[in-house]
Amino acid sequence: MPAADNLPGFDGIIFDLDGTLVDSRLDFAAIRAHLNCPPDMGVLEFIDTLPSSEQAAAHEVVLEYERAGAERAVWMPGAQQCLARLEQSGIPAAILTRNASQVARLTLDRLQGTIGCLLAREDAPPKPAPDGLLMIAQTWQLAPARLAYVGDFKYDLLAAQNAGMCGIYYDPNHTGLHSHLADVVIHHFDQLSA
Question: For the chain, does the N or the C end have fewer beta carbons within 10 angstroms?
């Protein structure tokens, strides 16, 4: 695994939103408890297993938590500056999130963040499916192998693997929890833009 201070150059960088660029303090334990979702299953994947008559209400529960998170979201240390440096360098940046599009846009509007391309759960199958990442690569007309996806969770890193992109694990608390799935580990955004 390359050292974070020895990163290869990339033609574009895609970011996860929650837990990566921003901290919305989403209480996943509360969401899981509200929905009776098992701890070893993704919330969106769990909702897909519910009877179709219950899915809309379950999605609304998740949306309520996400909206509340958007209202209290703050930038992760160095994230906003990293996006600005990428823009100044002419390197395209995008966001692929499992959040709802309206929530992702609300979060960015509230934080006065601008990003050229944003895909949410309505736009592509949720991570770890690679579809959203590959759609962004196609939009940019860039080879997936020349792109990186930065995220804080296993689904982000698995999506990067599935898309043939460099998976960068953002681990600000040095937990090492998903390091084994990453091509590169960073603890601060300064490491990414160095």
Answer: N
pTM: 0.87
The residues that bridge with 167 in the sheet, in sequence order, are 149
User: Which residues contact residue 12 at a Cβ distance below 8 angstroms, ignoring those fewer than 6 apart?
Assistant: 91, 92, 93, 94, 136, 137, 140, 142, 146, 147, 148
Closest by Cα among 16, 12, 5 to 178: 16
Contact 26, 32 (CB under 8 A): no
Q: What is the pLDDT of residues 45-96, one digit of tens each?
A: 899 899 999 999 999 998 899 888 889 999 999 999 999 999 999 999 999 9
